[in-house]
Specification:
Largest sheet: 5 strands, mixed
Low-confidence stretches: 1-18
Number of strands: 15
Structural class: alpha+beta
Distance between the termini: 65 Å
Order of helices and strands: HHEEEEHEHEHEEEHEHEHEHEEEHH
Helix content: 25-40%
Strand content: 15-25%
Number of helices: 11
Strand order of the largest sheet: 5-1-6-15-7
Length: 254
């Protein structure tokens, strides 16, 4: 009987749903804002070999914490575990180029958008005129590489059913797969395409597409608390109006 009760207790705990997230009052009482960053998506956030992390949203995390009167703690996460980590209360706010999607909005709050971006291919420079439409890419002989768990993989799964799509686990090294000829292209957000093209000048280039394949807002994603969202939106509105966010993004992209 004890065994049955124990199993029932576990099932009840699982059915109770996610861990209770911290509201703004608890964040201020604790004195620390926990910011989730993947550290693999320049120019938003990039973890360096020495373990330090840089990027526009590292700067913004510091500024947001300062505005709230607390210190910042950077919490490593991944695109695959982003949602689970938020629902498990491992961090309070996700930054670092998070796209606004209906499934994410159904479980937590987004800030006002920080920018609008869209998917574009990055290719070896000799192929920049070859892959300019989804139809050009969605062929069995075309090798597409994609990082796991985020909107890049969703886009590839939805749009390239005939292409050879390979999931590569490390978004920091994935562009070498294209540069060194093990893949033909990657489709990702325009800001990352432009950054990686500058980083690999003369080797990787944006494909000569007339426009992005889609449009999506980027925003900060946070635990569902009206006071926290109001505070983040108020700070972000001033930050966008002053141009501070745009300056941080431009500096990180250098």
């Amino acid at each position: 009987m004890r065994k049955i009760v124990g199993v029932v207790g576990v099932l009840a705990a699982l059915a109770a749903g996610p861990v209770q997230a911290r509201p703004l009052a608890a964040i201020k009482q604790d004195g620390t804002l926990r910011v989730g960053l993947t550290g693999d998506y320049a120019p938003y956030s990039l973890r360096l070999p020495d373990g330090s992390i840089k990027g526009a949203d590292v700067t913004m995390a510091d500024e947001l914490a300062r505005a709230l009167g607390v210190k910042v703690e950077i919490v490593p996460t991944t695109w695959k575990t982003l949602k689970d980590d938020l629902l498990a209360d491992r961090y309070d706010v996700a930054m670092g180029g998070v796209s606004v999607t209906p499934d994410r909005a159904s479980v937590a709050d987004f800030s006002v958008p920080v920018l609008t971006d869209g998917k574009r291919p990055i290719v070896r420079c000799g192929d920049k005129g070859r892959f300019v439409t989804i139809k050009d890419i969605d062929k069995p002989e075309v090798r597409v590489v994609v990082n796991p768990g985020g909107t890049n993989q969703r886009f590839a799964d939805a749009n390239f059913p005939h292409a050879s799509v390979r999931v590569f686990p490390d978004n920091r090294a994935i562009f070498k797969e294209v540069a060194e000829g093990r893949a033909d292209l990657m489709v990702t957000d325009g800001a990352e395409v432009d950054y990686q093209s500058r980083l690999h000048a003369g080797v990787l280039c944006p494909a000569a597409v007339p426009d992005t394949f889609d449009k999506a807002d980027k925003a900060y994603w946070m635990t569902r608390d009206p006071a926290l969202k109001a505070a983040v939106d108020a700070w972000l509105g001033k930050t966008l109006k002053s141009g501070a966010y745009q300056k941080a993004l431009a500096k990180a992209a250098e």
